[in-house]
Amino acid sequence: VVHAGAWDVPPAEREAHRAACVAAVHAGWDVLRGGGRAVDAVQTAVMSLEDDPAINAGRGSVLNRDGDVELDAALMDGGPLRIGAVACVRNVANPVRLAAELLGEVEVFLVGEGASAFARACGLALCDPASLVVARERTRLASWREAAARTTEGPGDTVGAVALDVDGHLAAGTSTGGRPGKPPGRVGDAPLPGCGYFADDDLGAAVCTGWGEHIVRAGLARRTAELLRESTAQDASWLAMRELEFRLNGRAGVIALSPNGSIGFAFNTPAMPVAYIDADLAEPVVGGIPRA
Ligand code: ASP
Question: Is 182 touching ligand 1 by the criterion CB < 6 Å?
Answer without folding.
Answer: no
